[in-house]
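Q&A log
Question type: sequence-to-structure
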Amino acid sequence: MAKTETKSPAKEEKTPKAANPATKAEITIAEKLVELYRLQSIDSQADRIRTQRGELPLEVQDLEDEVAGLETRLKKLEDELAEAEQAVADKTNFIKDAKAAIKKYEGQQAKVRNNREYDSLSKEVEFQNLEIQLAEKRIKEGKFTIDSKKSVVDESTKLYKERKKDLDLKKKELDDIISETEKEEKDLQKKSDAAAKQIEERLLSAYRRIRGNARNGLAVVPFERGSCGGCFNAIPPQRQLDIRSHKKIIVCEHCGRILVDEYVVERVKGENA
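Response status: OK
Response body:
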């Protein structure tokens, strides 16, 4: 008897609903813009803290360089002064030795037996007197050099102390400002690092490049009243619609900054409220 084949009922195939790529893209780009603007907001807060220091870091650096230069110059002058004083001391000792030699030669002259020995001793005495005269001349010149060097050393020491005092005051002022904002700055740095991790590497690199080239550190800016929030140039109406559509990341045609709309701005403001 032939077997009757029983066909299992065909499983009903479920057709998945097609995803709306446009909607997904919009959400993705919108979230990317929110993440970028969030990072910009954090970095801008840190920039404002650093701005409070004003020109102090540069002033401190300039004073440090100046003080280091004055210290080097003062050390050189002091070394030159010490050398001049040593030269005078050497010449003074030389004169003492020469006078002792003259006294010895004159004593020997009283005991000579012939004119040849007497003349020889007389020449030694004459030579030592000439050496004494030359040494006295060098001592006079050396003392003049010492007086001049001392005057320059005194002026340089005074200027060095004044600049060192200025440096200490500026450094204290800078340290006070840093200590007041140190905790807040560290907290913002942690937030910045955390926010940066949420951004894909390509966008993060572009953000940092734009921010590095911008004088005010703004890489992501809202457009307000039809103008770029970075360079304030007008944005064409069609481009404003493109920014609001969140279909792609739009940059300013004039300054190259990334542009966001009020939706992105309000999202980030809501997080900080």
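Response note: Residues 30 and 246 are 5 Å apart (CA to CA).
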